[in-house]
Amino acid sequence: MAISLSTSLLPNTFQCNGNHNHRSTRLFPNQPLNFGLKHHRNENKLSTPRNPPVLSAVSGSTGNEDNVDLLDTVKVFDLNGNEIPISDLWKDRKAVVAFARHFGCVFCRKRADYLASKKDVMDKSGAALVLIGPGSIEQAKTFAEQTKFKGEVYADPSHSSYNALRFVSGVTTTFTPKAGLKIIQLYMEGYRQDWKLSFEEDTVKRGGWQQGGILVAGPGKTNILYIHKDKEAGDDPDIEDILKACCS
């Protein structure tokens, strides 16, 4: 079965933007990481915010981590159109939050199933399962209906959460040999790209090159326990790392 990598990954557009600096960091569990340290050019001192988030693990990390603080300004929308501060998703509970490339993406449909297969474990630990996609509320509704995703689905039309977390975006993070092989594997497993969603204006206009990630956080707005930032399309982390962060 011949499958075109160029048509399976994203809409046919050649706009490119985003950060391509791939830096991986692994910290020991429960080791705090201060996101808020800022160096002043002409001063030999550091300033520290009052309540920096605490991170116990970072995988595939890219960009300046103190941008996690920008999550305080991010709003997402539920399927009823209600605007919600993203940090409210884990303010009073623990949550596993998956960030999709876009709602039509075949990789994201696999990721939804991959995480939902462990939802019973998450439920027993009181951890919510959440998926956020960069697109409209209608796109989010269609994704939820098509996939029968067992968790909560939210839309981020402005892509502000992706910008705050500095998820990578670009042609070179989308067209990779590994992603191409995974496309073939997923099609053989029965997964399909939704081309109508993939070619909707929002996805096409922004290039379709966005990568996502997975975050485990809460309870507490600044209690970030784990972040995985996809280095390329289809870059799923080990499920055991996620469960260790959310359920141990």
TrEMBL record:
<dbReference type="Pfam" id="PF13911">
    <property type="entry name" value="AhpC-TSA_2"/>
</dbReference>
<protein>
    <recommendedName>
        <fullName>Thioredoxin domain-containing protein</fullName>
    </recommendedName>
</protein>
<dbReference type="GO" id="GO:0009507">
    <property type="term" value="C:chloroplast"/>
</dbReference>
<dbReference type="InterPro" id="IPR036249">
    <property type="entry name" value="Thioredoxin-like_sf"/>
</dbReference>
<dbReference type="InterPro" id="IPR032801">
    <property type="entry name" value="PXL2A/B/C"/>
</dbReference>
